[in-house]
Amino acid sequence: MENYIVRIYRFEKGNPRHLVGIVELVEGKRRGKRAFTNFEDLWKILNSRISERVPPQQREAAKEVKASTPAYPVDVLKGLTKKVIVDARRLSREKRVLLTGYAIKKVGNGEIVTLADDDNAREDISLVARNHGWMLKGTEPRGDSYRVTITSTLPLHP
C-alpha cells in the first residue's frame, strides 16, 4: 500500500475550484511530487498513481466491467432473480427432463421456464424440480404448447 501526503497551499472558501497544492508519494518504488490546481487534477494524480500499479490489460478489463455494470441500488438487485428459458418443444420426455436438470444445475437459484408441447410436461418437470429441491410455480397453456415455470424459492402466498 502506498501512502501519500497531500499539501494544500491555497484554497478559497467561496470558490472550491481554485485550489493549489502538491501530492507527495511517501512510500513506494517511485517517490515524487506532483502539483495540482483543482480537485479534478488532484483526483487525476491519485488515480494515475493507482493505475500505474495495475497492468494495462487489467485496467482495460476493469473499465469494461464498470461500463457494463448497471448502477442499481442493492435493494433492487435483491428482488431480481435469474431466469432461464429452456426450449424443449419437439423433444422426447427424456431430453426435456435432461435439459431442465442441466438448467437447474446451471442457474443455482432463480427461475426456469420450460417450453414444451406435451401434455405430460407438467408432471415431468415438476418431478425433476422436486428431485433437485425446486418447486413448480405454474403452468400456462400457449396454443398447442405449454410454459412450465419452476423456481428455487418458496412463494410468499400459498
Question: What distinguishing features does this structure have?
Answer:
158 residues, alpha+beta, Translation Initiation Factor IF3, 3-stranded antiparallel β-sheet, rod-shaped
Summary of the model, kept short:
The protein is built from five helices and seven strands; from the N terminus they run βββαααβαβαββ. It is of the alpha+beta class and 158 residues long. The radius of gyration is 28 Å and the shape is rod-shaped.
What's the level 1 CATH class of the largest domain? Answer: Alpha Beta
What coarse outline follows from CA principal-axis ratios?
A: rod-shaped
Q: Major sheet: size, sense and barrel closure?
A: 4 strands, mixed
CATH topology of the largest domain: Translation Initiation Factor IF3
**What separation lies between the terminal Cα atoms?**
54 Å
Helix-strand topology string: EEEHHHEHEHEE
Indicate the mean pLDDT.
72
The domain tally reads: 2
State the CATH superfamily name of the largest domain: TusA-like domain
Number of strands: 7
Beta-strand level of the residues, as a percent range? 25-35%
Kindly name the structural category. Answer: alpha+beta
Spatial arrangement of strands, main beta sheet: 4-5-7-6
Number of helices: 5
Question: How helix-rich are the residues, as a percent range?
Answer: 25-40%
Q: What is the CATH architecture descriptor of the largest domain?
A: 2-Layer Sandwich
Low-confidence stretches: 68-78
User: In angstroms, what is the radius of gyration?
Assistant: 28 Å
